């Protein structure tokens, strides 16, 4: 059995992000949503995700912006976020072990729940 290391460097974050989004792109359930929204801008999206997770996990402040607005109009529901979280957890657990890996999963879970809640909220207020 190979012992996994924790997330400690930008290279670790790039490995996590690249592996995760590679799986997302191929996923039959959430892949089409991501591929349609991002189109041929995957390189830019991945760069932004590197900076986002570098800021959150390594406390190296390279990301600025609001992550929610680009997601506000996505055609997603709770089950899409659950699938996203399932892939994120599987990817993280297959690559890393340690406090920052656990922190990444917790942050991803909290973000997925918040995004789902806010998307539902905006949908419901737009109907009224």
UniProtKB/TrEMBL annotation:
Report the InterPro entries cross-referenced here: Globin-like_sf, Globin/Proto, Hemoglobin_trunc
Q: Which domain of life is it from?
A: Bacteria
Q: Name one Pfam family in it.
A: Bac_globin
Annotated GO molecular function terms are: heme binding; metal ion binding; oxygen binding
Which keywords label this protein?
A: Heme, Iron, Metal-binding, Transport
Protein's UniProt name: Group III truncated hemoglobin
